[in-house]
Amino acid sequence: MCNIKISLSLLLIMISSVLYAQNTSTYEPSADNLTNRQKFQDMRFGMFIHWGAFSVLGNGEWVMDKSNIYASDYSKLGVIFNPQKFDAAKWVGAAKNAGMQYITFVTRHHDGFSNWNTKQSEWKITNTPYGKDVLKQLAEECKKQGIKLFLYYSLLDWTRTDYQYETGRSGQGTGRTKESDWPSYLKFMKAQLTELLTGYGEISGIWFDGDWDQRDKANLTVSKVDWHYSEIYNLIHKLQPGCLIGNNHHLSPFPGEDFQMFEKDLPGFNTTGFGKAAISALPLETCETMNDSWGFNITDRHYKSTKQMIHYLVNAAGRNANFLLNIGPLPDGSVQQEFTDSLNIMGAWMNKYAKSIYGTRGDVIPAQDWGVVTHKGRSSFVHILTPKQSPFIFLPGFNKKVKLASSLSKGTTVKFKQVPEGLFIYLDRLKLDSIDTIIELTE
């Protein structure tokens, strides 16, 4: 008999992994869900909103963890947080004017603060001096303005003692000493998700984050806890069958998930260390900040140019992914001028060139050093983002029969030549745009 000792925790991990695989392998998306996946891809551009009690400190959404603030002290933010300038119509209007077609709103971040009138916790916005349900106002305004609403929900919590913080990779300095109670925490999450999916109308998707907190550092495919995803995902799909589920675990999608996201990276890239997962066949989304921070950071003035953000949007579409662009409103509920100015410029660009983005699909050809190609119906859109010192560009492997090539901005015809290996487009008589020269190829 082998003298091998297996720790109880490792054994539980092995058992939970097997049970998870068994319980989730039979997921069959509903007809509504499949339809909504296509609609999600068609939208292409959305707004991420990171905002909550953490905004008061003006040092990003990770301030509690980075500064090792005790939960007992952090709770005092609930007495200070009073966003009197919050205006759901302005938030949704800013997204709509920018050409965005959906909003993903942080209902609860890692500090556990709930931006709605939850009955499961006293640590919520309706217990602040503001006293109102922000999510209710936002949901009503999204419906009014025709913007789809997705909800970000943190799986981890730096304040609750029932969360299994002992094995977590963050939140170790928040002063918790009471032994955790994992079944209690799972029950709490299910109850909150039920509230979100039954009290605020149609929810287009749930955007999970925080799974990585319990991942083994040496082997990220191993979780230190059983998240009971089969139960959570089944609950969501039961309450709203058309609701899409995504999980920012930085791994290949799990059974039961409906779209795959990439954090601060385009699909196929890994500049942050988060993009190691292979690209799946599910709808794709990439998210990025307008400066370097998700939540309001008073010292962060590293704002990206509108050209950079438009290029990110186009590059995402060319790789068949949505672009979720973040804002971090001020603690009073207003959106800082730098963000609104950029959103207005992006909106003006979208007004001119939306047909090359909305409803398109990417991966027509691999991304080139000069740019990307999107496609919709009988049109392909060649986006020249980085012009080269050459009188032409070449689209390798492009085999769609082209009848006409024209400048999308000017409407003038563009010379081209098709060969078995692809398509040549001649630029010598074309005035190039400083941001994106778009050529429409009509079949």
Verbal overview:
With 443 residues, the chain is of the alpha/beta class. The protein folds into 2 domains: 8-356, Glycosidases (TIM Barrel, Alpha-Beta Barrel), CATH 3.20.20; 371-442, Golgi alpha-mannosidase II (Immunoglobulin-like, Sandwich), CATH 2.60.40. Helix content is 28%, strand content 18%. It is built from 11 helices and 15 strands. The protein has helices spanning 8-24, 31-43, 63-66, 71-74, 77-80, 88-97, 134-145, 182-198, 229-239, 306-318, 337-353; strands spanning 45-49, 102-108, 148-154, 205-209, 244-247, 260-263, 284-288, 321-327, 371-376, 379-384, 392-396, 404-407, 416-419, 422-426, 437-442. The chain has an 8-stranded parallel beta sheet with strand order 5-4-3-2-1-8-7-6, sandwiched between helices. It has a 4-stranded antiparallel beta sheet with strand order 9-10-15-12, with helices on one face. 44% of the residues are buried. Residues 1-24 have low confidence and may be disordered.
SSE order and pairing:
Layout: H1 8-24, H2 31-43, E1 45-49, H3 63-66, H4 71-74, H5 77-80, H6 88-97, E2 102-108, H7 134-145, E3 148-154, H8 182-198, E4 205-209, H9 229-239, E5 244-247, E6 260-263, E7 284-288, H10 306-318, E8 321-327, H11 337-353, E9 371-376, E10 379-384, E11 392-396, E12 404-407, E13 416-419, E14 422-426, E15 437-442
Parallel strand pairs: 1-2, 1-8, 2-3, 3-4, 4-5, 6-7, 7-8
Antiparallel strand pairs: 9-10, 10-15, 11-14, 12-15, 13-14
Helix pairs in contact: 6-7, 6-11, 8-9
